[in-house]
Input
Amino acid sequence: MSKQIIKNLVQTYFANMEAMNAEGWLAIFAEDAIIYDPVDSPGKKIHETAQEFFAIMSRFFTKLKLSQDYLFIANNEAAAKWTMRVVAKNGKTATAEGISLYYN
Output
């Protein structure tokens, strides 16, 4: 997979997460894709749990801004350092930072 394809997939991941668009987000994952979030948790099958995850986010947040601060690509793997800013339904704001790993 080329670096440009990986970059495009990660950008699509972030754009759909920010838009809280479960269908667009799921479209980039294989049917058997697994997510480990947080890192030490048991893996979850994305296609079985995404709708619930996005429903929870929609219940709590009125706005989600997700910036991709850095993207590192090596072979078919990528690491993205990100910053998330949210506005909760109660008007409070929060910021979180993290690193997500993507591999094929």
Observations:
- The chain has one domain: 3-103.
- The chain has a mean pLDDT of 92.
